[in-house]
Amino acid sequence: MIRLKDTHHASTAxxxxxxxxxxxxxxxxxxEEMRMTRMAKSGEKDDKKRAAKSDSDIAYAxxxxxxxxxxxxxxxxCARTQKEGFxxxxxxxxxxxxxxxxxxxxxxxxxxxxxEALLLVVAHAILEEAxxxxxxxxxxxxxxxxxxxxxxxxxxxxxxxxxxxxxPTLRPRAATDPLGTLVQLIERGHPAAPRAPQxxxxxxxxxxxxxxxxxxxxxxxxxxxxxxxxxxxxxxxxAHSLFEISTVDEESGSRVAIAFGGRYDPLATRFGSExxxxxxxxxxxxxxxxxxVKREKRGVPAIYFAHLGAEARRRALSVLETLRHADIPVHxxxxxxxxxxxMVQAKQLAVPYILIMGYKEAMENTVLVREVVSNSQxxxxxxxxxxxxxxxxxxxxxxxxxx
Length: 403
Known about the structure:
This protein is about 40% helix and about 20% strand. It is of the alpha/beta class. The chain has 2 domains: about 230 residues, Bira Bifunctional Protein, Domain 2 (BirA Bifunctional Protein, domain 2, 2-Layer Sandwich); about 100 residues, 3-Layer(aba) Sandwich (Rossmann fold), CATH 3.40.50.800. An 8-stranded mixed sheet has the order 1-2-3-8-7-6-4-5, sandwiched between helices. Helix 4 crosses helix 10 and helix 9 packs parallel to helix 11.
């Protein structure tokens, strides 16, 4: 949990307001507003009927997994009417234990590793803006339900060998939920936990390839990470990638988790009408002072950023973060694979300018700036992009331009 004394914020409201401003720059929108819009179209009765699916048989391995169930239901419901996918944020009040508030960021509708990469980049930006100093990103991959069966089987056998060292209150769980038991041992610092089987060793070749895609995004962006077999969660909730961001507690000198997330396809699909890919990250902050979030009114971006090809997609995150620091608003849709889909969206948004990055531009550290009306375009070095857009007054939002 983030302690406000470790940030430059005086209250929870200040932290959340700035964090949401950063998230909304990247296109995240309030999940509750999406939900209310959908309910107005489909009817409250229909939503209640679909939400009636039981979650009583979910085997939770972590305390912070329970709030995800409610979010998964909402995201799955919205996904039924937003087939193209969406980015959403939500705040959740935690009343058990020390009062805290969790900011959840969700990417729904994409199986691409860019979903997790986007979440990690935005979370990193939020923590940087808050003034969190040392940050450690730990990543694991538990694979699909099928590929992780061997992992869980071997964990069960490992726990049986060490059953005498496990607390008597935890021993019954070892027989029915070995993965959840291992998570508990890790949290308690049990000496047998570091020597337990590691999920990444059981991945298929295809799952290793997809996992490497995520790591490539982080390396191209320049976000440090470490592979950690101890970042685990329930297979009823998670599949494939899991990650945790921690910082150092100045008093104890130990690491303290401040964010956790991963790909929760199993949970989203459980409450959806069809297979629903989804990923999320939750950032937990203590409650202190004001808690009412203030959202800024932003003008409509005059620019749409489009990518063509895998290399350009990997470089896109760095470009977007540069433009955010320069306070230049842009539309983007990294969830789209094809340039045609992006151009259709740019046309629907009626933006006067489009930034286009393909393989050639990614290799040359440039981007094409296209004026929609004249269809003229110019290659601009990335180092000069922000200044170029300002000089030509392209950086201002449409509302400001029209004023």
